[in-house]
Design goal:
alpha/beta, Rossmann fold, five-stranded antiparallel sheet, 24 strands, RNA-binding, methionine-tRNA ligase activity, tRNA binding, Met-tRNA-synth_bsu_C, Methionine--tRNA ligase
RNA sequence: GGCGGUGUAGCUCAGUCGGUUAGAGCAUGCGGCUCAUAUCCGCAGUGUCCGGGGUUCAAGUCCCUGCACCGCCA
């Protein structure tokens, strides 16, 4: 059996701060890394930041600084976030590391020498404002969607990677290795994409357009562009071509990504590896998105919960547990503070925390806080619980390698629940009353202590701090990363006579009723502040300024949905003249309900195109939380009537 | 427009190869216990399995079709 394990997260693009998506990917990788350590594997865990490209240059400019200063700052934010989440990475790579850049150049040269990189000129539609090419389809009405200007035809020469050459090889490889890309839905997506002919990949930018990158070794007028630079980190971090880490860990490489970067990892990267003469990675593991909603209790707007901020509030372990328990790997999941509190209260405080607490309390009370021997007699319920523990351990070992973390955790919790039930069945407080039953009482509490120890070991990859805390109180302190399942989850591995300590609750409960009240109070306060603010002088306008608005009453003549748009409706409105207006109200009004409705229109708004449809004005509406209500007149007025 | 996914209890979701009375957790109600963080244990429900049609002795499951939402591609 191969007992090495190499896991990577994507290197995160430093044009934004770390958010929950980054955190989940990284925590998943961390749990996997810790799990394999627990199983006795030799592991290597890599994360880092992607720091080249024009978006970085733009972001730096926007921040009023130079690219190097900017990427240093953002990269540092990532590097400092991970320890707070107890991430156990062995290395943090940056694409601006000189060593990485050298490997990128080495591989470029190698692929170039092999004839898989060629030079070609092409013509395209180029927007000078954006400094980029557009395809016909990206243009709106023949104009750049950002600058509203027609692009110019421009010829540019660039280097291309002959990706198409490896299409058939890749299809065959994916078909031969069913778990090359998993879960299956993403494998199918890649295969679907590969049914169409693959185009070659443009991998360069002329330096006059982009200087913030790795220069091509065979043409210093160019730098390499995005993916060629970024993906190579997975091998450059291991010291490719001849690093010892590379020969040890690359053969077992696994990547974790979110579904938005499936194509580069599922298609570009394997073909790049093939062209460079490197064997493909073992597995690409793809997860879904966290949909952030604020739960059904609070519909507050403008109070976007930043999930990462909740980690210190509720505890890193609770946060990690929630993410791993709540998401089925591969599928999307919902994130809300309520759901987090719910999990914390019921799974962590009530089930696990309370089991630990009552076990230790009884040990203190009946055995002066020392681990008792396995007394006698042994009854069937003892054996049943022991079996349950074995079942949980097997399920755990089986599910985690399949990335089914929720199932592994469910199995652990079945064991925890069984232990709680066992206490009820055996009633230690009754046994304690009868001195003749001391042996039985010993058996019961020792059994419980052992279950708690196994629990501590099993939750260690998910909640390392909790595991350490539990083990310390059980009198067998071990660092989470030094735990080994075979040794430390072995039944009877506690030390008889060792002192255990009750200590504070592992997971204090959160009073959800109180939390909701506070939340509501906050929200009310914010709303009051908001309306106060808007009445303050800061944004006052003069009457003359108001007069510049040409507001007119009108009546809706026609209304229809704009295809493919969720929000937009196309309206014909009579405001003395007929106007076509696009309004973002489709989520609130059905077209048929609008015809004949009195509305107020801003008539002198500069016309604009929305989804390719011209809008000559704007309909006024009032916001009420998530709800939107049209502004109308008290009674019908003649279309075109001035509103003032 | 093409391809794919999803739709199951109040909420979040499982449901294998078509096979008994459709399940779990949370939330709710009732009962029990007192070691424990007002926790734990037991019991109890509640379903148009998105709609319609078909195949079959038998359909949540397979086929066709419609609707809704989502994703990928164009």
């Amino acid at each position: 059996m191969d007992t090495r394990f190499y896991i990577t997260t994507p290197i995160y693009y430093v044009n934004a701060e770390p958010h929950i998506g980054h955190a989940y990917t990284t925590i998943v990788a961390d749990v996997m890394n810790r799990f394999h350590r627990l199983m006795g594997y030799e592991t290597y865990f890599l994360t880092g930041t992607d720091e080249h490209g024009d978006k970085i240059v733009q972001a730096a400019e926007a921040a009023g600084t130079d690219p190097q200063t900017y990427v240093d700052r953002i990269s540092r934010m990532f590097r400092h976030t991970w320890p707070k989440l107890n991430i156990s990475n062995d290395h943090f790579i940056r694409t601006t590391d000189p060593a990485h850049m050298k490997v990128v150049q080495y591989i470029l040269q190698k692929v170039y020498d092999a004839g898989d990189i060629y030079f070609d000129t092409y013509k395209g539609l180029y927007c000078i404002g954006c400094e980029r090419f557009y395809t016909e389809k990206e243009l709106v009405d023949g104009k750049c969607p950002d600058h509203d200007k027609p692009p110019v035809e421009r010829e540019e020469a660039n280097y291309f990677f002959r990706m198409s050459k490896y299409q058939d090889w890749l299809i065959e490889h994916i078909e031969k290795h069913p778990d090359f890309i998993r879960p299956e839905r993403y494998r199918n997506e890649v295969l679907a994409f590969l049914r169409e002919p693959l185009e070659d990949l443009c991998i360069s930018r002329p330096k006059e357009r982009l200087s913030w990158g790795v220069p091509l070794p065979f043409d210093d007028r160019y730098v390499t562009y995005v993916w060629f630079d970024a993906l190579i980190n997975y091998v450059s971090a291991l010291g490719y071509p001849d690093g010892e880490l590379f020969s040890t860990f690359w053969p077992v490489a696994q990547h974790v990504i979110a579904k938005d970067i499936l194509k580069p990892h599922g298609i570009y990267w394997p073909t790049m590896l093939k062209a460079a003469g490197i064997e493909p990675y073992r597995h690409l593991n793809v997860h879904g998105y966290w949909k952030i909603n604020e739960g059904k209790m609070s519909k507050s707007r403008g109070t976007v919960v930043r999930p990462l901020d909740l980690a210190p509030v509720y505890g890193v372990d609770a946060f990690r547990y929630f993410l791993m328990r709540e998401m089925v790997f591969g599928l999307d999941a919902n994130f809300s503070e309520e759901a987090l509190i719910q999990r914390l209260n019921s799974d962590l405080a009530n089930d696990l925390g309370n089991l630990f607490s009552r076990t230790l309390a009884m040990t203190a009370k009946y055995f002066q806080g020392t681990v008792p021997p396995f007394g006698n007699p042994v009854l069937p319920e003892d054996q049943a619980l022991e079996r349950q523990v074995q079942d949980a351990v097997s399920a755990y070992r089986e599910e985690i390698p399949k990335w089914a973390f929720h199932k592994a955790l469910m199995a652990v919790w079945e064991m925890i629940n069984a232990a709680n039930k066992y206490i009820d069945q055996t009633g230690p407080w009754e046994l304690a009353k009868d001195p003749d039953k001391k042996g039985r009482l010993q058996r019961v509490l020792r059994t419980l202590l052992e279950v708690n120890k196994t629990t501590a070991v099993l939750v260690a990859p998910f909640m390392p701090q909790t595991a350490e805390k539990m083990l310390e109180r059980l009198g067998v302190p071990v660092k989470a990363l030094d735990l080994r399942l075979e040794r430390d989850a072995r039944w009877g591995s506690l030390v008889e006579g060792e002192r255990v300590q009750k200590g504070a609750a592992l997971f204090p409960r959160v009073d959800i009723k109180k939390w909701q009240q506070e939340k509501n109070a906050e929200e009310r306060k914010r709303n009051v502040e908001k309306s106060d603010e808007s009445q303050k002088t800061s944004d006052l306008i003069t009457f003359q300024e108001f007069q510049r608005l040409d507001l007119r009453a009108g009546v809706v003549l026609e209304a229809e949905r704009i295809p493919k748009s969720k929000k937009l409706l196309k309206l014909k409105v009579d405001i003395g003249e007929e106007r076509q207006v696009v309004a973002g109200i489709a989520e609130h009004y059905a077209p048929e309900d609008l015809v004949g409705k009195q509305v107020v229109v801003v008539a002198n708004l500069k016309p604009a195109k929305l989804m390719g449809v011209e809008s000559q004005g704007m309909i006024l509406a009032a916001h009420d939380g998530d709800v939107l209500k049209l502004v109308t007149t008290d009674a019908p007025v003649i279309p075109g009537g001035k509103v003032s």
